[in-house]
Each structure stands twice: as C-alpha cells, then as structure tokens.
Design a protein that fits this description.
The protein is about 30% helix and about 15% strand. It is built from 13 helices and 14 strands. The chain is globular, with a radius of gyration of 25 Å. The N and C termini lie far apart (about 55 Å).
C-alpha cells in the first residue's frame, strides 16, 4: 500500500509540475507582453473614446447593415449613395462635442462593409469626394480632432459588399443570389485592392494613433487576409499605431486561455462589458475596449429611440475602467452630417460628470478590492476612488483597507468624515465613509449618477 501511495503522490507531483510549467510564460512572451503594455500606455491612460459610424447608409436611416439585412443589390443600394450629401457636416463641431464629453480619442469609419469610401481613395470612384465638391471627409475629421488635442483613429472594413471580387459569403447582401454566386471572384485581386486602400490611409493622412479593422469570420481570418503582410505595411508607415484584434475572429467577452495576439494590440468586446477584466492564460491583464452604441444601432436609424441614459453611460465607463478596460462610445450622424440631438444631450450630461470626476477615469484601472454592493472601485497608484452609485442606508464600508489617510469628495475637494468602527463593529479592515456626519446616518448623495470618494491609501 505504501508503494501505491508513493506512486500516486509522485503522479500528482509530476502533474502539478507540468501544469506549473505550462502556466509560466517564456521570456519571449514576457518581452512581447511588456512591449505591448508600453505601446498601449497612452490609450490605457485615456480610457474613453468616440466611435463614429457615418456613411451613405444614413440616408436609408435603417442602420449601417441595411444593405445586408434587406439583401439589396448594388443597383438597389445606389439610390442611397446618390442621395448622400452631408451638407451640415462640421468636423470641428464633432471634435468639440467629443472633447466636451471627456473623450480623449476618436475613431471614424473610413469605409464600412458597403464599400463606400468616406476618404478620397485613388483606387475607386465609389467614394463621397466624387459628389461632395471634392471634399475629403476623413481628412477634415483628422484635422479637426487633432486640432482639439484628441488622438485619432480610422475604422476600415476588410470585407466589402461592393467590390466585384469580394465573394458573396457570410453576410453579403447577395448571399442568396445563385446567379451572382456563379461569378468568378478573384480573391487575390480583392486583397490587392484592400491592402492598397489601407496603404493610402496609413501613408497619406498623417500620424494615425489607431487602426480599427473589422471583421473576420469563419475561415476568413488571419492569413486569409494576408494579415501579417498587411500589418507589416501598416507599421512601416505608422510604427506607433495601435491595431485592434479583428484581423482574426474576435473572442469578445470570453475569459480564460487567452494569449496576446500577433495580429492586434487590444481586444474588442462589442455591445457588452466582460464580467471581469480580460487576462491572458498567465493572469496578466490584456488591453481591451468595449465598443458601445448610444441607442441600439451604430449607423443612423431614424426609428431607434432606445437611448441609453447618461447614468448608464457613466456607469458603463466606470465598469470598464474598474476592470482595466476602455469604452469606445458610438455616435451615428444623420444623412446631413449632424450628430442627433439626443446623442448630444446624453454626451453633455456625461461631460458634466467628467468635468468633476475625470480623475477617477484617466490613468486609472482596477483595484484589488472586491466589487462592493453600492458601486465600483477604480484606482491610480495609492489613490483609491470609491464610485458610490447606489444610495445606501448610512455610510459605505471600504472593506479591506483597514486604515487610510485623507478622504475627499472628488468633485469639490471637500474632506469627508470617516470612521473605523460603528456601533461595536470592530472587524479588522473596516473603513466607513459618508458625505456628512455622523457617518452612520443617511444623506442625499451630491451626484445622483455617481458620487466619487477619493481615498489616499497609506
């Protein structure tokens, strides 16, 4: 029996040793990871950006997928292209709106899945500049946002429902058109076109901070797009640019077993926030960004009145940052080029909160403390920010820090009362805070969306 026990113990020991060895990153991986974190430093500091979906689909006013959803042929879709004339487009006004909301960077659709180019591509006549007095909307966007001190990025769809050599696969509008499917599609010719347009963007439009590719599916992923060659070209012209992960199939909010990608710098959960921060298989935080709409559509949709409240947007931003993530919040300008009034109203309210509380967002990330019932934590170094989102009876307990230094209301800088014990509750690690004295009583919170308490840790 002793020999059997020893043998079992030896097997368990060897299994644990193998498992431990598997969970130890190689020096090469660690070096790559450290370089990634250094490269994404500014982006992870800024935390909050604007996504802008704008194109000919705004005329149809049924979202950017209208051509696919309604299985429109190129000829049927042409009516929207011909009518697209964004006479009220004002890049400077867009930039001021983003900055006032507290956003630090912005990403515009240079070309969406419909293939219609918002930039003056020399590789096609299927572009806005041809019918917009020669104006290059992408260039105007870049100039205006840079002038406001914002970082800039461009979205580029690697799929193209208009190009004659892009096959009718996936969600192609003519996926069910059997006659269309009989055509001879020259994939290499399409890749030459797609790579050529990306080269125009990274070569001819000045410094770009972000390249946001969209999207991979099924076998159309990675080297199907000649992704390594594409990225080499991108970095040749833009060595410091950040690239999203969608040259391969997006893993979304999936947790566990991830590795940092050779095809991109950050993960892109869409229309949802992970339950916890995204980690690689070794437990290292991975850069990620949730992209989120203000209503339920990316492109302008006249009938979609399902607007998210300013409070929900603020809570979503804090939620992302509390898990080491970013928020890329979308607006969909109408066919005249104006951001909808309701979007402006929401962003103004978010901006008012950011004016006083951005210190709990910029440069912040996750705290090691467990999420409390009354809100969330963000942290920057030895400064802990308690986001008091939900009213409570009496004070909040910052459980687990024991003793702290000064405590302030972030929005005003006013010192707040604190206690280590309450009615005999002397558990180690308790730290009670309120917006007024005595701390155990109940007071109206100064900010109905999110009252932020700044705690200096010892």
């Amino acid at each position: 029996m002793k020999k059997i026990h020893c043998f079992i113990f030896l097997l368990l020991f060897l299994s644990l040793a193998v498992l431990t060895a598997q969970e130890t990153p190689t020096p090469a991986y660690t070096d790559t990871y450290n370089k990634l974190m250094q490269r994404t430093g500014w982006w992870r500091y800024d935390r909050f950006g604007m996504f802008i979906h704008f194109g000919a689909y705004a005329v149809a006013a049924r979202g950017e997928w209208v051509k696919s959803n309604e299985e429109l042929s190129t000829e049927q879709y042409q009516q929207y292209v011909d009518a697209f004339n964004p006479v009220d487009f004002d890049a400077a006004a867009w930039a001021k709106t983003a900055k006032a909301a507290g956003m630090k960077y912005a990403v515009l659709t240079a070309k969406h899945h419909d293939g219609f180019c918002m930039f003056d591509s020399k590789l096609t006549d299927y572009k806005l500049s041809k019918q917009f007095n020669g104006r290059d909307l992408v260039r105007e966007f870049l100039d205006a946002f840079r002038a406001e001190g914002l970082k800039v990025g461009l979205y580029y769809s690697i799929i193209d429902w208009h190009h004659p050599d892009y096959p009718n696969v996936g969600n192609h509008p003519q996926r069910n058109d059997k006659e269309y499917g009989k055509r001879n599609f020259n994939w290499d010719n399409y890749l030459k076109y797609m790579h050529g347009q990306v080269e125009e963007l990274v070569r001819d439009y000045g410094k770009l901070d972000i390249m946001w590719f969209d999207y991979s599916f099924d076998e159309y992923s990675g080297e199907k797009w000649k992704a390594k060659e594409l990225l080499e070209m991108v970095h040749k012209y833009q060595p410091d640019i950040l690239v999203d992960n969608r040259l391969t199939i997006n893993e979304g909010t999936k947790t566990g077993g991830r590795m940092i990608s050779v095809y991109g710098d950050f993960e892109t959960p869409e229309q949802g926030i992970p339950d916890e921060g995204l980690l690689d298989k070794y437990g290292n935080p991975i850069p990620w960004e949730t992209c989120l709409t203000l209503n339920n559509n990316w492109g302008y949709y006249e009938a979609d009145k399902n607007w998210k409240s300013p409070e929900l947007i603020i809570h979503s931003l804090v939620n992302c940052v509390s898990k080491n993530g970013n928020l890329l919040l979308n607006v969909g300008p109408n066919a005249r080029g104006m951001i909808p009034d309701e979007s402006i109203r929401i962003l103004k309210e978010v901006g008012r909160w950011m004016d006083k509380n951005s210190g709990s967002i910029y440069g912040c990330g996750a705290s090691k403390l467990a999420k409390p019932d009354w809100g969330r934590y963000t942290q920057n170094g030895n400064i802990l920010f308690a986001h008091w989102m939900y009213p409570t009876v009496g004070h909040i307990n910052i459980k687990g820090i024991g003793e702290a230094g000064s405590v302030y209301l972030l929005s005003s800088g006013a010192e707040l009362p604190k206690e280590k014990a309450w009615w005999g509750n002397n558990e180690q690690g308790n730290f009670f805070v309120n917006v007024n004295s005595p701390t155990y009583m109940t007071f109206e919170l100064p900010d109905p969306h999110d009252t932020v308490v700044e705690i200096h840790l010892k």
